[in-house]
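Quick one: structure for this chain?
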Amino acid sequence: MPLSRRDFLKMIGVLGVGFAVSLIVSWPKLVPPLNLDAKKSIIPSPSTPEATQDGITNEFSGIKRVKEDYFGAHYGGSALVKGSKIGTVNRNVVRTHDYTGGSPVWRARWSRIETSPGTYDWSLLDDLVNAEHALGHSIVHTLTSCPPFYSARPDEKCGTEYGVCAPPSDLTKWDSYCEAVATRYAGRITHYEIWNEVNVRQFWTGSKKKMSEMVRRASQTIKNIDPSAKIIAPAVTGLYKESNLKFFVDLMNAPDNATGVLKDWVDIINVHLHTPNLKRFDLIFAQIKNIREKMIDLKINDMPLWNTEYSCKDPFFKNMTPQLRKNAIQALLTIPAAHNSGGCDVSIVYGLDNANYGLVDADDVQTWNDMRRNLLNGDVTSIDWIRDFGVSAVIGGKEYLWDLRRQS
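Got it. Here's what it folds into:
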C-alpha cells in the first residue's frame, strides 16, 4: 500500500529528509515512481522560513476556500478558446499577453495592433475578447510594447524586435492608444495590466519614473472612459532575489511626474512567480512571502495580489513523465492559492498551448479541471514544502503528496 502523506511526514520527522527519501528510493512502491534526481537547492531565498523542521516547511495552516476567479489561463493561439483535440481548460480569467490567434507573431501587443500612426488592427484581439467575454470570463489586457515608429529608441534591439522595449518619445501617443483600447472594449476588457516584467530588459529599458508616469496616464485615460476597469501594476519577477525586491519597492514609490507615485494609480499588485526549475517550487512560496512583506511596508497590503504569469520549465511539461506532469499541474494550481502570508487572489498559468510550456494531452487537461474542482469544493487546510522531494497538502480532508523530482 502506498505511503500516506501523514506517514511520510512522520517518517521524515523520525529519520530526516535524506534518509527517508533514500529509503523510499530503495522501496519504490511506497511513493511511485521514484527513479528520480534529488539534489539540494542552490538558490537562496532572502527570507528564512519560520516553521522549518527536519526539511519540512509549513507554508500554510488554516482554512482557505479558493474562489472561481482565482483560476487564470494564458494561451498563444485560439485552440483553447473553442476547445481542442485535448479538451478545454476550465478557467475564469484570461490574459492577452503573447496571444497570436494562430498567426506567427504576437498580435495583442501595442506594436502589432497599431500598424501605422493612428491605424489599428483589432481583428485577432476582437476574436479573443468576444469569445472570452461570451463565456463570462474576466479579461486581462497587457498594454505593452511600443511601436517602433513612436519609440524613444527605435534602433534598440529588444529580443527579436527593435524599439519595442523603450517608452514612446511622445507620451500623448500612449494616451491615444489607451483611449482607443478602452473605448473599443469598455465593459468587456475588465483589467488592464501595464507592461510586462519591467525589471527584465528584454521587455522594458525605460526608467522607473517613466513607467510611473505611463501608469498614471493609462489609469486616468482608461478610467475616464470605463470607471469600472481595474489597473494592474507592472509585473516584477524573480522576487527571491534581493535586487528584484528592491526594484519592486523603488518602482512602487517612483514619482509619476505629477504629485504622486506609481502605487497611487493601481488597483492590483502584480507578480510573476516563475522559478528556475521544477525542483525550486519552494521559491513560489518565498516570493509570495517576500512581496507580501513589502506590501505591508509600502502600506498597500489591502490591495489584491495577482500572479499574472507563472509556469513549469526545466523540465517543460512535454519532457515530464505522465505522473510527474500530474503532480506538477496539481501543485502549480495549489501552491499560490494559500500561504501563511496571504497567498495570491488570482493565478494565471502561462502558455497552456505553447509548444514548450503547454499541456500535452487530454489527461493533463483532465488533471487541471479535476484539481480546479477539488480546490473549489474543499477547504485547503495545510501545505508543506518537503526539501528534496516536493509538496504535501490537505484539501477537502484529502491528503496529497506531490513528488516533484525529475523522473526517468
